Amino acid sequence: QVQLVESGGGLVQAGGSLRLSCAASGRTFRSYYMAWFRQGPGKEREFVVGISGSGASTYYADSAKGRFTISRDNAKNTVYLQMNSLKPEDTASYYCAASDVFTIRRGNYDYWGQGTQVTVSS
After folding, report:
1. What's the CA gap between 102 and 4, in Å, rounded?
2. How far is CA 115 from the centre of its chain?
3. For residue range 17-60, what is the model confidence (pLDDT) as tens digits?
4. How high does pLDDT run on average in the chain?
5. What contacts 33, CB < 8 A, 6 or more positions away?
6. 96, pLDDT greater than 90
7. Is-contact 22 8, C-beta < 8 A?
8. Among 37, 39, 53, 62, which is most buried by a count of CB atoms within 10 Å?
């Protein structure tokens, strides 16, 4: 029902910023809870931040609080992740995902993007 395409990844220096985008297809985008996950080298994919369908509610992992901001523009069927004060440990492939309900569990997400690589140099 939903297809997701991420963009905006790249190479940045520690302390720098990057803005990721996730473009979604479908007529019911506003009904989905959207989230960003990431997977670093040799690690499992982990939840970073999520946002409700209306954009009124957000939930951040401790690693993202104070540095990352999630937002969505339902008119454009797009979710964004603004990343500031980037650290080398933020290096990972970042994925956007869609779920019918609020959840931070990877297995509960029905739709996934292909991922976009973020590399932070020290």
Report:
1. 18
2. 9
3. 999 999 999 888 999 999 999 999 999 999 999 999 999 999 99
4. 96
5. 50, 51, 52, 53, 98, 99, 100, 101, 102, 103
6. yes
7. no
8. 37
